[in-house]
Here is the input.
Amino acid sequence: MRRYLLPHLPTPSPLRCLLAGLGAILAVGLVGGLSVHMGTPLLIAPFGASCVLLFSVPNSPLSQPMHVVGGHVLSALVGLLLRAALPNEWWAVALAVGAAVALMALFRVTHPPAGADPIVVFAADPGFAYLVTPVLAGSVSLVMIAVLYHRVTNTPYPLKPA
Here is the structure.
């Protein structure tokens, strides 16, 4: 059985696993509570996957603030533009996801959870205000919570430029 586990992933301590889960609970809970308080949604499903990166692997380049915020904003914008121009069909969704992936790579803001943003846009069909709330405000909030959380838990985040 052990040979099927990924050998390139270091074995995390149980404490580190619990801290990652606690960070995700706090981040989604705080952003969700802020949503209720403000009366505007700040959470989207891809943010749950962003929390995996922010709290489980904060040292990954894909977890860094510019990737989280830039990836979500760019991918949601691609989804909104293509949804405005194309019918709500499976091939248009595929095109939007592919374009978002390519543009995130081009602009060096790849954040895998953001690849789901165009799917959410096509499914929900929101207006362009969606780019500000929940996408920009929510992703910035998650990053700010991650920065504070990692300071409290003595985990380096964000990474210092090389």
Helices lie at 14-38, 46-56, 65-85, 90-106, 117-124, 132-152.
